[in-house]
Amino acid sequence: MTPRHEHDSLGEKLIPADALWGIHTARAMENFPVTGRLIAPELIHAFGQVKLAAARTNKKLGYLSPDLADLIEHAAIEMAEGKLDEYIRVDPFQGGAGTSTNLNVCEVLANRALILAGKHPGDYNVIDPLEHVNLHQSTNDTYPTALKIATYELLKSLESAITEIQETCQTKEQELTDVLKVGRTELTDAVPMTLGRTFGAWADAFARDRWRIYKCTERIRVVNLGGTAIGTGMGAARDYIFNVTEELRTVTHLPLARAENLLDTTQNMDVFVEVAGILQAHASNLMKIAADLRLLASGPDTGLAEINLPPMQTGSSIMPGKVNPVMTEMLTQVAIDVFSNVSAISLAAGSGQLELNAFLPLIADKLLSTLRNLIAANRLMSEKCIRNITANVERCRSLVFRSTALTTVLVPIIGYHKAAQIAQYMQTHKCDIFIAAQTVAQIPPGQLEKLISPHAVNALGFDKNEQEKKS
C-alpha cells in the first residue's frame, strides 16, 4: 500500500497507509528509541477512559456532534479494554512531560474512529486527533489524570495481594502455634517463642501495609482534568471543566474528584512521592521477612533448619541435590528494585520547574512498574512459598532445650544469679536445660516443661499468683 503523507508544524513525513499512529508518533519514535520497551498498558487503558469521558462530555455539551463523538467513544472504549495497545509505540522515556504519549493516543483514536466511519487512516479533515479527540484537553491534564487512574487501580490490586499474603501468614500462625522454638535477637539466642508467633508478627506487618495502601487512594483520587496546560483551564470551556471529572467518575467507577487548585495539581507531583514512600515501607517489610525465611530455613544440614521452604527448582549446575531459597531471593530483588524506583520518583518529582513537571513519564514508568512487581511478588510468595512451609518440629525443640537463653524463664522463680548458674552448667557439661535445672536448682523436668510449654511462652508475661504456687 502507498504510504500516506502527514504534515505538522515541522514539515511532512510518510506514514504507513494502514498505521493507526501518525506523524507525531513517528517523530517520537525517531527521537526516543531509548529503552526498547512500550508504555505501561495500565496507563494506555486509563488514557482510553480519560478520552472517553472527554468525548462524552463534549457531546453532551454540544461541542462535538453526536455522530463524531460516538465514533471517538467507540475507539476510546476499545483502548480502555486493551484492544489498541499495540499501536501505542512511543518509548516510556520521552521529553515533553508525556506529550508524545498523548499525541500517540490521540492519533490512534482518531484513525480507529475513521476506520469505524468507513474512512481511511489519515483523513483528518473528518476526524482530527487534536481538533476533535483532544478537544478542551492538554497533555498536562490528561497524562497525570490517566496516571492517577492507573495507579488507583493497581493500588487496589496490591491491597488485594497483600491481603492474600497476610491471610496466608495468619493461617500458618494457627497451624504452627504449638511449635516451640528459640527466639533470637542480634542473631543470638533469646527467650523461647513459638513458630506460630513468628508468622503472626509478619501478618501484622502486612496488615499495616494493607491499611497504608488503602489510605493512599485518598491522595490519588484528586485529578487536574480540565486544567489544560498549567491549571488555569485556558482553552477549555467552563462547562466542560465543571462536568468532565464527574463523567470520568462514571466511566471509571472510581471516586475521583477535581482538585480545588488545578495549578497545584498540575505542577506538583508530591502525591506520587507519598505513594512511593508507602510502597517502600511495604518493600522494607518484604525484604526483612525474606531474610528471616532464608535464615530459618538455612542449611539444611549445617544451618538453623527450623523450617522447610518448598523446593522449587534445582539449585546448582554442579552440586547435586542443592536447593536454593529462590522465592525469597526473588522477593529481595523486587524490594531492592522498589527502593531504587522510589529514589527515581523522588528525584523526578523534585526536578519539576514552575508550572509543570517535565519528568512525569519517568514517574509513571517507575511507579507503575513498582506496583506491578509488588503485586506479582506478594502473590507468588503467598502461593509458592509461605503456604507450603513446614516446620522441623524436633529440630526446633532440640535447639530450644540446648539454648542457655531458655534459663530466662526460671528467673522469676529462682532469681537471675541461680539461673545464670544453670546456664553455666549447661555450657560446661554440654547438656540440655532439664539436666542442668534439676542438678543445680532441683527443678523437676515436669515443672520445667510447664514453664516452657507453647501456652506459657505465648502468654503475655507470667502470672504472679501462679508463680508463687509453683515455688
**Mean pLDDT over the full residue set:** 94
Order of helices and strands, N to C? EEHHHHHHEEHEHEHHEHHEHHHHHHH
Gyration radius, in Å: 31 Å
What strand order characterises the main sheet?
1-2
Low-confidence residue ranges:
none
- CATH fold name of the largest domain, please? Fumarase C, Chain A, domain 2
What number of structural domains do the residues give?
A: 3
Distance between the termini: 97 Å
- Overall spatial form: elongated
Describe the main β-sheet briefly: 2 strands, antiparallel
What's the helical proportion of residues?
Answer: 55-70%
Which homologous superfamily in CATH is the superfamily of the largest domain?
Answer: Fumarase/aspartase (Central domain)
Quote the beta fraction. Answer: 5-15%
CATH architecture of the largest domain: Up-down Bundle
Report the top-level CATH class of the largest domain: Mainly Alpha
